[in-house]
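Hi everyone,

Forwarding the result from last night's run.
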Amino acid sequence: MTGDNQLPNLARFRECFSSAILHRLSLGTAKKQKRRSGKRQKNVVNYVGEPTPRGHGDGLDSDAEELAEFIEFLASEVFDILPPELKGLSYADLKSDSQIGRKYASIALPEDLEAFVPNMPPSVTESIEAYGLLSRSMDLSIFVLSVIKEYIATVTMAPPIWTNTRASACEICDRQWIPLTYHHLIPKQVHEKALKRHWHDDWRLNSVAWLCRACHSFVHRIASNEELAKDLWTVDLLMSREDVRAWAKWVGRVRWKTR
């Protein structure tokens, strides 16, 4: 079972699985299967077709929908059986415990997977084999290994240099044509306290959001520096507040007339 706190990693895992499947399809290894008639069996994805170039064939939309369903099914099935530590893995984990980094860096060969994916669901094995996603030189463990390694690399990637993440629009009101300032999501005035009280790791302290002046001032009006550091230290957390969403909707309609 996947917990709410693991959903962001599930989304990343799905993208890694999608990348691997689309790569196999692009090589032409997948067999186009005819949809079976009759009642659909539980935990079986009935059809995957090779991608059809835009503008060719009437089944483009349905093929894309079925492919998305197939990827969602496989990714969810495999992610559910991963160890909780691997499902919740992050860059912060590697920074706090060097042994974790060495542990997952050791996954290099298919046999290394047994400790992390001991029992692959039969539905996954059957689906991947039935739709020809594996070439003669590739078995299931090699395929899954490539997905797991890409997933680990993705979720443990170091954050960018925050001041180089400049957005093209205000991250609250989404106005694109207005000058932007950068807002320290964890205000500088409380950095020392944030470290002392273990609110955040030091590598996260300089994270920023790019906001227009109006939204920047609004954020500092609705919460103290400590509240921002403890409870509102990402744009998503800010936007989870009803008053911030209402403000964004209102200020987003304020536009200057050009001269």
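The beta strands are 180-184, 208-212.

Cheers,
N.
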